[in-house]
User: Fold these one by one.
Assistant:
Number 1:
Amino acid sequence: MAAPSTPLRAGFEYRQAQEIRDAFARHGVRYLFIGKAGAILLGFPDTTQDADVFAERSPDNGRALVIALRELGFALTDDQAGDIERGKDFIQLKNGPFDLDLVFAPDGIERFEDAWRRHIDVEGFPVCHLDDIIASKAAANRVKDHDVLPRLRSFREYWMQNRSRRL
Amino acid sequence: MRDEEQIQLERSWLEEFEAAARRPLETRMRYAFIHTYKPVLDDAAYRAFDTLEDYRRWCEENLPDWLGYGRSFDSA
């Protein structure tokens, strides 16, 4: 197996999620945590490697996102900043203090605005509703999504039943 | 899977959900985010794809199957 060209790093931490939340808030970035990272924020006990962020695709939001990411320590070239400002569908960042996947058009979700209307706030972290996370994983239909879906759907039942108690 | 096995599995999931609900978010995150090296995927500092379809195709063509990024042919 080839040696990694990027240094190995520790897992994403709560403190880093706070840094994203705070930097994105300072610059008015419209985004939601999505994927398994989003489910984990909602209470789903599982493991994952990095954080996935669903960002609204608009020129203003793209510019704000670039400023916030640079402030967080992501070393973005001008070309890479251009990709983000244009909102390419999927961008993988491993050039900062933690790994971050930016998705502007997740499978299974029609528009950012729809997901925003349904989103859940967890300690100031904006998170996609579990139904959107499940829809996205079902539509992506990768082997790793397929493996997690039964347990995630079971968690959805538990979460819906217990949500009112926690809010 | 037999019904009894499924019931047992769902019971164990429920126990996990309840245990997680008792932990603060910071603790849950400490248990949840674990970084392990993923061949190919972790070998570049930056990648961008015009469409998700391009990304899915790239994963299928470049990543080892065992990473699980390939399309599932079972119904989800």
Number 2:
Amino acid sequence: MMAKLKKERKINIIDTTLRNGEKTAGVVFSKHEKIRIAKMLDEVGIPEIEVGTPALGEMETDMIKSVLQSGLHARLYAYCDADIEAIEAAAGTGIKNVVINISTSDIHLKNIYNKNRTWLLNRLREAMRVADSLDLGFIVSAEDATRTDLEFLLKVISLSKKKGAHRFRICDTVSRFDPFRTFLIISTINNAIDFPLEVYNHNDFGMATANGMAAIRGGAESIVVSVGGLGDGTGNAALEEIVMALRYLENVELGIETSKFREIAEYVAKASSRAVPIWKAIVGTNVFAHESGIHADGVIKNPKNYEVFNPAEVGLTRQLVVGKHSGSHTILHKFKEYNIDLTDKEANDILAMTRAMSVDLKRPLFDKELMYIYNEYKSGSKEKKKVEKVKS
Amino acid sequence: MRELDLLTDFSQKAGITIDPKDIKIDDTTLRDGEQTAGVVFANDEKIHIAKMLDKVGVHQIEAGIPAMGGDEKEAIKKIAGLDLNCSVLGWNRPVQSDIQASIDCGVDAVALSISSSDIHIEHKLRKSREWVLDIMKAGVDFAKSHNLYVSVNAEDASRSDMEFLLQFARTARDAGADRLRYCDTLGILDPFETFLKVKNIIDIIGIDIEMHTHNDFGMAIANAIAGIRAGATYVNTTINGLGERAGNAAFEELVMALKFVEGVDMGFNTNLFRNLSEYVARASNRILPTWKPIVGGNLFVYESENKVKGILADPITYELFEEKDVGLERQFVPGKYSGASAIIQKLKMLGHRIDEKQAAELAEIIRKKTVASKRSLFDSEILDTYKEFLGSPKKAKAGKGKDK
């Protein structure tokens, strides 16, 4: 169980940036952006994409049609509640596959639908019948599955299997589980019913990616992701984190062109009027920036001291930042880039000046500022006074 | 809930029970947080953060690196002299001059950090395993001779040979170290591996373990929790997860995950979390993303019909904790995914009543406007839309004025 995943295991990812990503309060994509994002995901080899929610009306169905017409290789899904009108609206766009979502927990049944479990089973059965009659392939998605009575959940899964669903989605809607419980619920279901499972995680406690990976370990075949983790509330498992975690922590290669990850993250960030935090795992610009003496020195000696993969693999570049925490090796290395060979003493003196200035400015220094320091250091006593001033 | 009884719990199975009283937070915002490329705190900011951390209830503050001297040493000295309830720790390489600098600052605890992986020993330190053990032991001896609490940090522990790491832990323990910091320096562990490795060290060496995890693959929190589940008793956190590269385990996420996912309530003043996070974000010159777990401004903002309906019926429908628990506010924002409920709720807050049928019609109009402007509408725009919908342009103007 604790061993790495078998290399030959086939893992599917389905991206929901265009659906749950857009559902985030305050985020709205234009038609042009939706098409562009779908194309970018398709180009890097994402096998499945959720493109939108047809029940929202004509604007949305129009966008979905446009995505359908852009000649993508990915399998495309529309997202519907277990509602006949919603499913008919999906079929009207010409899409071939849908996600049929229904909340299965008693808490949701009471507070959202104000109905009982029998009502739910009937509603789902009817929705699947309609989807089938409209020749739609479908995934059944159980919202709030992690707060659902397990026996009832198994019943819903059995019903979905019987009625011809592709697979069954387990949603940890309120982020109730950690990786251990995620593993256990997925493996328990997996042992009880022979049917492909998919997981959908939220990041309320910062564990979306870990939970997604735990589910895969527990036997799930598919995972829902979004670019940068964009999604309602705290968001979902991030596409780039899952793909790279599979590659480097589990040795599972999905064959996705990861060198475009930074570009995609930037585009989605702009389209959703958000920033890519510089510290964002995998695609943040600071992920390959090294300042502290120990780290920078380690990276200069050998990148694998502090890097698991080459920054180019995700479309980033390595940076050596010179500031308060720099050591003399960074200074030597930095000046070498400008063809200046410093002695150890020079490097140490310049380091002291660099640290003082960095503390004073409350930020690292630009290369140009380093050169100013160097010039001041090299010039006569007249200039030296100025430096003393900076130091104090 | 039946499923939790059905499933055998990993920790229980391993015979581990977690007592909230045993779990301690050692916050390193001021050390690993500031060590982040590009981040520099002013001394006043450091002191302010230290005071806030103490007020919130952390057990230990890693205040900085005394050996850097200058301003850094000054700040640590001041923090150590603040008479805080928590312990104050200085970070050191295991060399006498570093530790002496910590002693000069008046801290009561020290971290002695040295790499334990062959990759680091060979490519960074360019030394041998024996050299590492010797220098670490000498460091612990010196620190203990000055009555300091000692956390020995195994840097890059997660890439270390387990046999050597056990030897490293044993040497630290025998020299009198109080705990071992298990550093997943590159953030390459997953929770299952973390669990096994940490449990192994505890079982064989029996030393207190502190988790220091990084978020390179988005698993810092899950790995810290895995460590606790395996019997670790300390976690090294930072506010907002501020730290090298993708950062560390975020303090606020860890504390809330322990409380609401693991059922381990450590009794922190969580209602101060938003303030603390905002302050650290500003001092580190970074944004606090609206979607940041626990403290993001968007977390209790509801737009879609089901969510609004569910929250109004009972917040438990979509929330494991409430907005006031972390110092945030709940909001309903009508938008592209909204139905009647969000409209009714929003207008109610703006002092207007609308029936469900009208609200559903208005929702359609607001959806179109939201898509056209590619963002949520302001309250004033919603009011304008509402007045226009009622067919009274005069009132619309009045509404706009009132809203300001």
